[in-house]
Amino acid sequence: MSAAFQKAEIPNWEDYQMHIANRFIASLFLTAALVVPVSMLAAPAPQTGVSIRVYDKNHKDYHNWDDNENKAWGIFLTDNHKNNHDYAKSSKKEQGQYWDWRHAHPDEHSDSDKR
C-alpha cells in the first residue's frame, strides 16, 4: 500500500524511474572512464632485458642471468660431467664452482654481464 501511496504522490512515476536509471548508467560510465586510465598506469610495464641478477659471493660481483648465462650453465654442467638441473636448485658450493669456472671462461659479452 505504501508503494501505491508513493506512486500517487509523484505525478510522472515512469519519468522518475527513467531519471534514476539514467543517473545510475551515467555514474557507471563516469566510474569506468576514471578507473580505466588509472588502472592502466598502475599495471607494471613488461620487463625487457635482464630479469634476474645473481650475486657472485666469491668474486663480489653481480651477473645478469639471461639466455647466454643459461647456455654457459649447460656447458659448465657438461664439462664437469654433472646431471642437467637448474642453477637455482644447485648447492651454494656448486654455484661458487660455476662462477669460478665462468670467470675462467668468459664470452664476448662478459663485460656487460657484470654490473
Largest sheet: 2 strands, antiparallel
Strand adjacency order, main sheet: 1-2
Q: Spans of 5+ residues with little confidence (pLDDT < 50)?
A: 110-115
CA-based shape: rod-shaped
List the secondary-structure elements in sequence, H or E: HHEEHHH
Mean pLDDT over the full residue set: 81
Strand content: 5-15%
Total tally of structural domains: 2
Q: What's the total count of β strands?
A: 2
> How many individual helices?
5
Structural class by helix and strand composition:
mainly alpha
Helix content: 55-70%
Offer a quick outline of the entry.
With 115 residues, the chain is mainly alpha-helical.
Describe the structure in your own words.
This protein has helices spanning 2-9, 13-42, 67-79, 92-104, 110-113; strands spanning 52-56, 61-65. A two-stranded antiparallel sheet has the order 1-2. 59% of the residues lie in helices and 9% in strands. The protein contains five helices and two strands. The model is unreliable at 110-115 (pLDDT under 50). It has 115 residues and is mainly α. It folds into two domains: 2-42; 52-113, no CATH class. 6% of the residues are buried. The N and C termini lie far apart (79 Å).
